[in-house]
Design a protein that fits this description.
The structure holds two protein chains of two kinds. By secondary structure, chain A is an alpha+beta fold. Helices cover about 45% and strands about 15% of the residues of chain A. Chain A has four domains: about 200 residues, Rossmann fold, CATH 3.40.50; about 70 residues, no CATH class; about 200 residues, no CATH class; about 170 residues, no CATH class. Chain A contains 24 helices and 19 strands. In chain A, the strands form five sheets. In chain A, strands 2-1-3-4-5 form a five-stranded parallel β-sheet, sandwiched between helices. The longest helix of chain A has about 30 residues. Chain A is elongated and about 105 Å long. Chain B is an alpha/beta fold. Chain B folds into four domains: about 170 residues, Rossmann fold, CATH 3.40.50.300; about 80 residues; about 100 residues, Arc Repressor Mutant, subunit A (Orthogonal Bundle), CATH 1.10.10; about 70 residues. In chain B, β8 and β9 form a beta hairpin. The chains are: A alpha+beta, B alpha/beta. At the A-B interface, α13 and α14 of A face α4 and α6 of B.
């Protein structure tokens, strides 16, 4: 069976019990070691409510995650940080099945330790009063979960109770015990997490916090400075409450939301994050994708339904031919998933899956935002969400809520003809909290969040999570299959061709991802004069200049064409509704180089640094940081300043950004 | 007792895992990454030993996620085009059918299609590193080069995530220009790696002495002083990174010798000798190793073997054992012991390395810079032989059935001791031939001389006769000229009389209102043979005035006739 790591934590007042417990385990080890079981005691001296929330918090969490059993001993107090760590342990258990948590409250009877003095000096001491109040509050919450804590009167009592647990451990085996406990307590734990944990998180995060604790069809439970209140499930009520409190943010599912960003289009969506399960929908769970090829076949079939046939040779699926139809931002991660590094069952693979999801949302947001930025009539009061997006800080980028931004921007575009009409229907379905799409979004989002916060371990549970995440991602991408009807192209330059007596033409020098700019192969012969019908699509795409009569698009821009084919898409640019410029939200760094470049290099908007007067871009292949003490050296950023001494060609980009974004910026008060 | 292996890279290039000990090139790594950004084909060049391969394999490599990088290093081998297809086909597990040359049987499969097939297996962007690219230019024939650059151009423009880096020594850059028409992007994107300046060498030395990576291998006493002592041994100009690596290897050896028992070796300033020179370290190393091998293999053999592994431009060659043996035999090199053992010892000493190409094992010198040092260490005899070979290569362009000229023979004279039997035979035959030709020419010359003498005499006689004849002819001409002149004068006088008669008659006729047309014609036809212009002028004037008068008369007559006709009509 091996080693069972036991973490014992208590406040200082129970030091003796803790020491006695250590001795007890030592004796138990002597008894059990011949049976191949070793109980390793990992002792934490104090609960962290007595120390500041600095690096020790991380140490505690890491220690916790490495243990199999956590024993928490309470007596006279249960401070807010203690509760926070308890909640961390519960969440960890919920996700991974470990550690098993045993909570013991010391309640001495008349014959043993004196009961807490509630009628004496302690009655008047505000600290004691507060401690008692917190303890009772904590106990009451745990009482609702019955199984979570046990009372003990003295150490012998504790020893007997825990000894019983150890016997179960020995007889059943730790793995089975763990799974049994997990199954038994799943509902209570889920309820606890959904209804309780946010309270603790909120109350610790700061004062004056308003937290959505629970949501039903008719009611919303809000914790306002630790006090639980119920309101009608109605946006206006919430807004009134905040107005009364002179606040403009509300915490939903661990995220602060500016109430001005909430309207009828996303209110239900956000509230659902509190009330709905974040597990994979059963429909998907029953049909998990476990085969490395099955997921590509699924996408291939989805493309076929959109009129895109993917040829395969020698019964081998060509992933590249499939992925290229999902747009540059997404296909980068789809390739990574299939790379040797991505095929191992590691957190890295999970990060590639998660980024494929995130980049799909990002892409949709850019499509919508580009239209918003280009509206002839700018909104008089642009939603703060756009200002927040514009002013994203580097630390915020990884966890930025693109789902919500998508809803907000789609709502803003109501009343105008959307470029990508399919997004409207997609958002409608996404906003329906009863839909599988919504639940899948919750699953993808929450696990991505946990990954970033290092809450997911590389253990025996990970492979299953990977399969679930892949299944969810494929479902998600199938819903987004309409993206395949659009093609991106980078316009490097537009040259005027106009001579006396001729019709004006505009020669567009363009490039596609991994292709070459402006190489005209009309005069080229294949090396051996092979007939053209045996050439691949890549051969016939060599011609990357297009002379168009009378019309031009945007220079140094990434265009999204309303066409499956770049060549025919460019033929149609006489119709201004046939393309959308995604720049400057997505840019091609190659077109800004002083030296002529051969192929596009893609960056996307990643926020700004107002103090430095600088806009930031991230490389489209950047990866998430998933391991401790690890830097992803390959991640690249591009800064666009007002004056770019090393690359002066970026100066106009800054001017463009400033001009386009200014109407949507809100001054900080 | 086995000595611990040196922790230093020596002449090996730095790889991905060596990032923690790869110092002094941070700026170049960043610059190279930026140079490669947005580019599908890059030319990376620099002096040999500047660390081009390390910059890519370690520096650049660590700039990319392993999900975004799959690099293949391709050397020319027998033929660069074949090597390309064979290398990739190995990874594809022979999915592409190749012919006996190693080229795809299906003609439509070019570089682009091959990389596309590779990408569809790996899903990682491909980086093709054509290392020692100058080998194509030095050793390849024209057809190979044309084919390669044509295919390269196709690959650059193919829509597949693949970047090509051509890595070569800068002294061969010029050879590329004649192929630029086949691949116009050849020079468009290039990156020059310079040797390290003193500032960066210091960074390297300080890095080596302080990095935790090496703590398990040695301790450092007085790092600052040691660093300074090493820098003082550096030449004023730049230096190749390889020298520093080798020098530290040498310091390590000295430290090992000094250590007591099994203690960890200590690097300290005292290890540096006054005679140490960084730029000479490779030379010293090579000489040292050769000296160690001489007792076992013979005086000349080790160096001869190494020289056989380099071209006449001191670049590396890949050569198998059989070819080496043949070369030694042809040069008459006395090898004690077995060649295979010598090669193994050279490899162990890290002077050479063995590589598998196709099914053969070949050997090459471990580093460009060492190849250059080998070249510099050629003995006088070797240099002469090298020069002889160069001359042979020129001369052998001649038709073998023809003979060497005297000039050729003169050129070959100093290299007599290196002549192969074939050359010797050719020389002997040529000498015989030339001698026979000489004799023949002598006979012909004598005969010619005789003929010339005869001709000269005849010419002289003819000259005399001609002289006499000339005098007579001249004299006769004078007489004839005189007679002619007299005749002309007489004739002119007669013509003048006749002319005057005609003129007078013409005027008479004119007075009588008739037209002296026939007379005019006669006047004109008289052939004046005058020698003075003034008389001819007078004659011409007379004709003109008579013509005018005649025309006037004719005109008057015409008018009169017209009036008569009009009167008649009325």
């Amino acid at each position: 069976m091996g080693t069972v790591r036991i973490f014992v934590a208590s406040s200082a007042e129970l030091k003796k019990d803790r020491d006695d417990f250590r001795n007890f385990l030592s004796v138990e080890n002597d008894l059990r070691h011949e049976k191949g079981v070793y109980l390793e005691l990992v002792q934490w001296e104090y609960f962290l409510d007595s120390v500041s929330q600095t690096s020790k918090q991380d140490d505690y969490n890491n220690m916790l995650k490495s243990c199999d059993i956590v024993i928490c001993l309470f007596y006279k107090k249960a401070g807010k940080y203690t509760q926070l760590e308890f909640d961390t342990a519960i969440k960890q258990f919920n996700e991974t099945g470990a550690p098993l948590i045993y909570t013991y409250f010391k309640e001495p009877d008349a014959n043993s330790n004196p009961a807490p003095d509630t009628n004496n000096v302690a009655e008047t001491d505000p600290v004691e009063i507060e401690n008692r109040k917190n303890l009772e509050s904590f106990k009451k919450r745990l009482e609702d979960l019955k199984h979570f804590y046990t009372r003990y009167t003295n150490f012998d009592n504790l020893q007997n109770q825990f000894g019983t647990q150890l016997k179960i451990l020995q007889n059943s085996g730790f793995g089975k015990l763990q799974q049994d406990v997990r199954n038994e307590r799943k509902e209570e734990v889920t309820n606890y997490i959904n209804n309780v944990i946010n309270i603790n998180t909120a109350s610790v995060a700061g004062s004056n916090n308003v937290v959505i604790q629970g949501v039903t069809d008719s009611k919303i439970t809000i914790i306002n400075n630790g006090v639980s209140e119920e309101y009608k499930n109605d946006l206006s009520e919430i807004k009134n409450l905040l107005k009364t409190l002179a606040l403009n943010t509300i915490q939903v599912d661990g995220r602060d939301i500016n109430i001005d960003n909430v309207n009828d289009s996303n209110f239900g969506f956000l509230m659902g994050r509190v009330s709905k399960s974040k597990a994979l929908p059963d429909k998907l769970k029953d049909d998990l994708i476990t085969d490395s090829n099955k997921w590509m076949i699924s996408l291939q079939l989805a493309l076929k339904s959109k009129g895109i046939s993917i040829k395969s040779s020698n019964n081998k699926i060509d992933g590249g031919s499939i992925f290229q139809h999902f747009g540059w931002l997404i296909e980068a991660y789809l390739y990574k998933i299939n790379s040797p590094a991505g095929q191992k069952p590691t957190l890295r693979r999970l990060s590639f899956l998660a980024e494929a999801y995130q980049s799909s949302l990002r892409f949709l947001c850019f499509v919508q935002l580009s239209q918003v930025l280009q509206l002839k009539k700018k909104p008089d009061n642009p939603p703060p969400a756009i200002n927040e997006f514009i002013k994203l800080e580097k630390s915020q980028l990884a966890t930025y809520d693109y789902s919500n931004l998508l809803l907000i921007t789609t709502d803003l575009l109501k009343g105008s003809e959307p470029f990508m009409t399919e997004i409207v229907k997609f958002v409608e379905e996404l906003s329906d909290t009863g839909s599988d799409l919504y639940t899948t979004n919750l699953f993808l989002e929450s696990n991505r969040y946990k990954l970033i916060n290092k809450e997911i371990k590389e253990d025996e549970q990970l492979p299953e999570l990977l399969d679930e995440y892949l299944t969810a991602l494929v479902y998600w991408l199938r819903k987004l299959i309409f993206i395949s009807q659009y093609k991106m192209v980078s316009i490097m330059d537009i040259k005027l061709e106009y001579r006396l007596g001729e019709i004006v033409h505009f020669e567009h020098v363009y490039g596609e991802l991994n292709g070459a700019f402006g190489e005209n192969s009309e005069d080229d012969e294949p090396l051996d004069n092979t007939a053209t019908d045996t050439m691949t699509a890549s051969d016939t795409d060599l011609r990357t200049t297009k002379s168009i009569e009378g019309v031009y698009t945007f220079n140094q821009s990434i265009l999204l064409l309303k066409d499956k084919n770049v060549d025919s898409g460019l033929d149609n640019i006489g119709d201004p509704d046939s393309y959308l410029s995604l720049s400057p939200l997505i840019i091609d760094q190659s077109v800004y180089s002083t030296k002529p470049k051969q192929t596009p290099e893609i960056y996307f908007y990643a926020g700004m640094d107002p103090l430095k007067r600088q806009y930031n871009y991230n490389y489209f292949r950047n990866e998430l940081l998933v391991y401790e003490n690890e830097l992803v050296k390959s991640n690249k950023e591009l800064s666009v300043k007002e004056i770019n001494s090393n690359e002066p060609v970026l100066d106009p980009l800054y001017t463009q950004l400033d001009g386009l974004l200014k109407p949507f910026k809100i001054r900080n008060k | 007792m086995n000595l611990p292996a040196s922790p230093f890279k020596f002449l090996d290039s730095y790889q991905q895992g060596d990032r923690d000990v790869f110092f002094g090139r941070d700026k170049e790594i960043n610059d190279l990454y930026n140079a490669l950004s947005g580019v599908k084909q890059l030319l990376l060049y620099g002096p040999s030993g500047s660390g081009k391969t390390s910059l890519i394999e370690c520096g650049l490599r660590n700039q990319f996620s392993d999900a975004d990088w799959f690099a293949l290093t391709i050397r020319r081998g027998r033929n660069l085009n074949e090597s390309f297809f064979k290398t990739i086909n190995e990874i594809l597990q022979d999915k592409i059918e190749l012919d006996e040359k190693g080229l795809p049987k299906e003609k439509r499969i070019n570089f682009g299609q091959t990389i596309e097939a590779l990408f569809s297996e790996l899903y990682q962007p491909i980086y093709l590193l054509f290392d020692q690219f100058e080998e194509l230019l030095i050793l390849g024939d024209e057809a190979e080069k044309i084919e390669f650059f044509t295919r390269l151009n196709q690959l650059v423009r193919f829509k597949v995530p693949c970047r090509v880096i051509l890595i070569m020594r800068e002294e061969f850059i010029g050879y590329l220009s004649e192929y630029e028409y086949l691949c116009p992007s050849l020079f468009q994107h290039r990156f020059r790696l310079e040797k390290m300046g003193k500032k960066y060498v210091k960074e390297v030395i300080d890095g080596i002495l302080t990095t935790p990576y090496y703590h398990a291998f040695f301790i450092v006493e007085n790092a600052d002083a040691l660093s300074k002592a090493v820098l003082d041994r550096m030449p004023k100009q730049e230096i190749e990174l390889a020298h520093i690596q080798v020098f530290f290897g040498e310091l390590w050896n000295r430290a090992l010798e000094q250590r007591k028992g099994d203690k960890i070796p200590k690097l300290h300033p005292g290890l540096i000798k006054e005679t140490d020179k960084l730029e000479e370290v490779l030379n010293d190393f090579l000489k040292d190793q050769i000296e160690k091998l001489k007792p076992k293999y013979g005086e000349n053999a080790p160096l001869e073997v190494l020289v056989a592994m380099i071209t006449d431009r001191d670049t590396k060659l890949q050569i198998d054992e059989k070819t080496l043996q043949k070369d030694l035999d042809s040069k008459g090199v006395q090898l004690q012991g077995y060649l295979a053992e010598l090669l193994a010892d050279l490899t162990k000493a890290r002077i050479t390395r063995d590589i598998k190409i196709d099914d053969d094992v070949k050997y090459e010198i471990s580093h460009d810079i060492l190849a250059r040092v080998v070249g510099q260490n050629r003995t006088q005899d070797m240099k002469l032989r090298q020069e002889a070979e160069r001359i042979y290569s020129v001369i052998q362009l001649k038709d073998r059935t023809s003979f060497l000229s005297a000039d050729d023979l003169k050129l070959l004279l100093p290299y007599e001791k290196f002549h192969t039997p074939e050359i010797k035979t050719w020389i002997a035959d040529s000498e015989k031939y030339n001698k026979a030709v000489e004799q023949k020419e002598l006979v012909i010359t004598r005969k010619r001389l005789r003929n010339i003498r005869g001709l000269l005499f005849a010419a002289l006689f003819a000259l005399v006769v001609a002289g006499v004849g000339l005098w007579y002819a001249t004299n006769q001409k004078k007489i004839a000229d005189k007679n002619l002149a007299n005749f002309k004068i007489e004739q002119a006088a007669k013509d003048s009389i006749r002319f005057n008669e005609l003129y007078s008659r013409a005027n008479t006729i004119l007075k009588e209102d008739a037209q002296p047309l026939e007379i005019l014609d006669s006047m004109k036809s008289i052939n004046f043979v005058y020698d003075t212009a003034s008389k001819m002028k007078w004659m011409r004037k007379a004709i003109d005035s008579t013509t005018r008068a005649t025309e006037s008369k004719q005109s008057m007559f015409d008018s009169t006739q017209k009036m008569s006709d009009l009167r008649a009509k009325k």
